[in-house]
Amino acid sequence: MVDYKPTFELAGDKVGITYVAVRNKVIWDHKSVAHDWLVTFAAWTCFRAYSPLILVGLSMGGQITRELLDADSELETVEAEFDSLCYIANGIRLASNLSLVPWPVEVPEPTDDRASLLSDEKRLCFDIAILTAAATFLHELAHVRFWAHGNAPTEAREEEKACDAFSREFLLSQVSAYANESGYEEILVRRKRVMGLATAAFIIDESSRNAGPNDTHPSTGDRFRHLALHYLQLPDNDDAWMYTASLMLASARRRGITPTDISFKSVRDLCDQLADSLD
Fold first, then answer.
1. Concatenated DSSP letters for 92-121?
2. Mind giving me the DSSP string for 187-232?
3. Is the distance from CB of 153 to CB of 226 less than 8 angstroms?
4. Residues 207, 142 contacting (CB under 8 angstroms)
5. Sequence-distant (≥ 6) Cβ neighbours of residue 123 within 8 angstroms
6. How many Å separate Cα 106 from the centre of its chain?
7. What pLDDT was estimated at residue 35?
8. Could you tell me which of 162, 206, 251, 261 has the fewest CB atoms within 10 Å of its CB?
């Protein structure tokens, strides 16, 4: 196996999102990290919006219907909160510098001081944001490994899928050892890491939703599959799948394809069906 020594470069802000591997170097900028932090908080808003709907649907034998959507009196309000955060995130993508975009008052600015966040909800979003950043950097590091070893898949789309799988495996393959060493409950570690990986897929979708399909990057459904859904070591109705399904419902809504008549055996089954709809 060829040894490789990746390097990392914090670049200056510019228009767009900067997370890229160039030969043996991973390049990113501060604006992109702040963007992903903001979209993580938007993702949590998706969970607030759709998890009650999924729970009620599950209690009714596994179904989401138009009537169920219409009966949720708070859904439109929470969706508007989500839309507002996504509007600001789009402004960040279009700006040449983070300082040009007003930061939303309801979201704390990016910080490495978890204790400074004054609610459990915000501290959980902090944890998800950190895991999402790790997933993103690991994806780019996988590109560096392919370059160093000269064994990248011949098709760019397949390389992207392999890099997603590398990120997932890196974050999840040693969970038992980490839980034993840290004292954290193992299922909680697994759950939170899957949530971080699902958020990474969601951020990619949100960042590129105007780009349309192409030959170099996977569909949104495949992003969710390779980053999160191919992980099978969580119960089918685990909260991680509830969170993931909420994000995919938001992605479907952004496309104008919110499902209004869907039956599912479990929340995991709902995730698989939603992934199919996002291909």
1. HHH-SSGGGSPPPTTSPPP-S-GGG--SHH
2. HHHHHHHHHHHHHHHHHHHHHHTTT---SSS--HHHHHIIIIIT--
3. no
4. no
5. 114, 117
6. 20
7. 98
8. 261
Helices first, then strands: H and E counts in the chain: 10, 5
Cα 100 to chain centroid distance, Å, stands at 25
Q: Rounded to the nearest 5 degrees, what angle is found at the Cα of 55, between the Cα atoms of 237 and 118?
A: 90
Phi, psi of 239 (to 5 degrees): -60, -30
**What is the model's pLDDT at position 26?**
97
Both structure tokens of 15? 């228009």
> Which value, to the nearest 10 degrees, does the dihedral of the CA atoms of residues 134, 137, 142, 144 take?
-150
Q: Which tokens belong to 29?
A: 């900028």
Per-residue pLDDT tens over the stretch 175-233: 999 999 999 999 999 999 999 999 999 999 999 876 555 778 899 999 999 999 999 99
Other CB atoms within 10 Å distance of the CB of residue 274: 26
d(CA 49, CA 54): 10
Token pair 């991973």: residue: 26
Tabulate helix, strand, coil % of the chain (nearest 5): 65, 5, 30
pLDDT under 50: residue ranges of the chain: 1
